Description:
Layout: E1 5-9, E2 19-25, H1 33-41, H2 46-58, E3 67-71, E4 80-87, H3 101-116, E5 123-127, H4 139-156, E6 162-169, H5 172-183
Amino acid sequence: xARTIRVAQGDLTEGEALLLVNASNTNAALGTGVSGAIxxxxxxxxxKRIQQALxxxxxxxxxxxxxxxxxxxxxxxxxxxxxxAVMDYRQGFTGSSFPTEETIERGCRNLWQAVEELGAKExxxxxxxxxxxxxxxxxxxxxxxxxxxxxxxxxxNPQSAIGDVTFYGYELHEFxxxxxxxxxxxxxxEECIPEELRR
Length: 199
């Protein structure tokens, strides 16, 4: 399958991807940042539907690094949202709620596998830096883990259902760092790269 790895600045809910990645928590509670954008984009009652899906799938909270895939509510383009449990809220918010690099790696590996299990022929993905916001993990390291696990997954699964993947950086500085890291792993189309950053 021919696929393209892109980098974009802005809100991942405004793109064309079929699957949106949410940097979530073990309770799948939609808060601020990416989660808030997804809550708004997927329509009224979306949180309640996620809670029901969480109960149906896990019978309670997820473990850190697990992934819950739900529909995308009333989003006009996306069909699914993958809620990756980054923050551990099983005991409430504590000093140990923040993710480790191992949690992010486990979450990424579970995410890519979850795409395969959707049963679709080709799924475009809008990816974010897991744990780099509320999770307090460095942006560069988070994007690197996302890229490395994706590359490893694709090398082991040549018929993968993962189609185009777009890594998002919301603010300009986040986009620049994300672009730099993604370009270390994948050939990014020239149109994704501002002229002053091309080399």
